[in-house]
Design a protein that fits this description.
Length: 577
């Protein structure tokens, strides 16, 4: 029976469904640390209501997609002509590829598999920008822009936060990225997990995207609302782009469950906001507990999951299979993600009682009766590789010049189209609280060094030193330090660093203060003055407390977005700077 269950992982790029696992094992589903959804929403009362209405939901046709989209736009105060709802974000990715990606698409890897697989399935060239393990998988937007220019990519994608590592870029950085690539056919900002971020108060670029000619923002509902099975998501763009996607979607592409949930949300805003607060608190506690396991590295995350590197010698497929068969715990082993390897797991944030069970299972599998004795490599072989050679081959086979092309990129002078905000300054993708501290996934020799950004030479257009042969081959530049060679344990991040902060979580503001809409929040007076002067508002540094909701969070309409019913006036100021 155990072999039958684990065999489900040997085919396909994604984990098997919970239904498939239950059928094969003949038991109830395992404790799920694999599927990244909100464990606190819907509430038990909402599930009771859905159960009570189940007969009508599955018996009758739903309303048209326009009706359901209209209700969602009313809730979020978005212009309906700027929104298209899909049967999950994957349906929207499919139509974006078919309609708007003509020849090539650039994407940092590792990332969500459909962003690499979908364009390749339709014959497009996918230019994969490898995120470096030695840099904690942090995305340097300036280097990414240089890569896009060198490859001639016509479409660029950023997932913010990124899946599977949870990497995050501030709103100002995303807008500067869009400014620098305004000539591309399309830029997609995938914000599927942004509701779980707390690094800044207003991280979404939804409000900015509707003003731009070539930007689409993708949002998920299943992940936020804990209802992956309902299959609903939406995109926001200017009316022309949104309309092209919307015109291709079937009239009844959204089912009755999606309609029922969307129309329930207005009465459950307070519970939803509290669920997000609880996930963020759990992320902090879960990172703290995992970072105490010897040899386990925890990377900073702004998603509802944590990316971890297993101790040296541990094979991810073995750890995954033993956790499932011996402890009934399901985790996401990332060996089949391009740009990752089998030494990495993605672990979904769950309540503390579940995390204690996960930690206990990991201790048993990784260390056995003697802590520190890591699991050896699998002797039986599997379809995944725990090394980097397979990753290099995958990137090379799908990326044209592949990693060889990165050497030329590294030697090329800075492109004149780089955002002015980035010229000669430290890159803003780092959390302010974490700058100068130990960085995730770095060897001890590199701890405390500044993260890669634009050097003064790059800002002046000077050529960078030629990379080493190891860099040209896509390998890590830094090798093991003497401490690692002696077998000393490499400590993971502290919980505070995982959250990108050094202070305790602030308590919610007092009840009665104005609420902020997580999708579309009003601008501050200072930001409005900056906008009038043609400046991009500066993102607030560090995590910000979310307001205490007493009803569904209602956002004041942004400039030119009149209560979500009218397209922005042509004379509206350029929010993007």
């Amino acid at each position: 029976m155990a072999d039958n269950v684990t065999s489900l992982f040997r085919s396909g790029a994604h984990s098997p469904s919970m239904a498939a696992l239950a059928r094969e094992s003949g038991e109830a589903g395992p404790l799920d640390f694999c599927i990244p959804c909100n464990p606190y929403f819907p509430t038990p009362a909402m599930f009771d209501e859905l159960s009570h209405r189940l007969r009508d939901i599955i018996t009758f046709y739903p309303s048209s997609a326009d009706t359901i989209t209209g209700e969602l736009c009313s809730l979020l105060q978005l212009p309906p002509q700027c929104v298209a709802m899909g049967n999950g974000s994957t349906e929207l990715i499919t139509w974006i590829d078919h309609l708007l990606v003509r020849e090539s698409l650039a994407i940092p890897v590792p990332t969500f598999g459909r962003w690499t697989d979908q364009p390749m399935e339709t014959g497009k060239r996918v230019d994969m920008f490898p995120l470096q393990e030695s840099n904690g998988f942090a995305l340097d937007p300036a280097q990414y822009i240089q890569f896009i220019r060198s490859r001639g990519s016509r479409v660029a994608v950023i997932c913010n936060p990124n899946n599977p590592d949870g990497g995050f870029l501030p709103r100002q950085t995303i807008n500067a990225f869009c400014d620098a690539l305004a000539d591309l056919d399309l830029i997609v900002i995938d914000e599927s997990f942004l509701e779980f971020a707390d690094a800044e108060a207003e991280p979404s670029v939804v409000e900015d995207a509707v003003m731009r000619p070539n930007v689409i923002v993708l949002r998920s509902l299943g992940k936020n609302f804990g209802l992956h099975g309902v299959r609903f998501g939406y995109l926001v763009a200017n009316p022309s782009l949104a309309g092209r996607i919307r015109s291709m979607l079937p009239k009844w592409n959204l089912n009755s469950f999606a309609e029922t949930v969307v129309f329930m949300l207005r009465d459950h805003g307070a519970e939803y906001m509290e669920s997000l607060h609880q996930v963020r608190r759990d992320r902090l506690d879960m990172a703290r507990q995992l970072s105490q396991l010897p040899g386990l590295t925890v990377y900073p995350s702004q998603g509802n999951f944590l990316f971890v590197r297993l101790p040296v010698g541990a094979e991810g497929t073995v750890v995954r299979d033993r956790l499932l068969t011996e402890h009934r715990i399901l985790v996401r082993e990332c060996g089949n993600k391009i740009g990752s390897s089998s030494r990495f797991l993605r672990l979904v944030v769950r309540p503390q009682v579940d995390v204690r069970r996960l930690v206990s299972g990991l201790e048993s599998v990784l260390y056995g009766s003697r802590r520190g004795a890591a699991v050896p490599e699998s002797a039986g072989g599997n379809t995944y590789s725990s090394g980097t050679a397979a990753v290099d081959r995958l990137v090379s086979s799908t990326n044209g010049q592949g990693t060889q092309g990165l050497a030329a990129v590294a030697q090329a002078p800075q492109h004149p189209g780089l955002p002015a905000a980035a010229q000669g300054q430290q890159q803003p993708e780092l959390y302010p609280a974490a700058q100068g501290q130990q960085q995730p996934g770095l060897y001890p020799a590199a701890q405390g060094q500044q993260q890669p950004g634009l050097t003064a030479a790059m800002a002046q257009g000077q050529q960078q030193p030629a990379p080493t042969a190891a860099m040209a081959q896509g390998r890590q530049q830094r090798g093991p330090t003497p401490a690692m060679a002696r077998g000393q344990q490499q400590r993971g991040l502290t919980a505070a660093m995982v959250r990108g902060r050094t202070e305790p979580e602030p308590s919610p503001v007092a009840q009665g203060q104005p609420e902020q809409q997580p999708w579309l929040t009003p601008m501050s007076a200072q930001a409005q003055q900056q906008q009038a002067a043609g400046l991009t508002p500066v993102a607030q540094p560090g995590p910000q407390p979310m307001p205490q909701a007493t009803g569904w969070p209602a956002a004041a309409a942004g400039p030119g977005l009149s209560q979500g019913t009218a397209w922005p006036d042509a004379a509206a100021g350029n929010r993007a700077g």
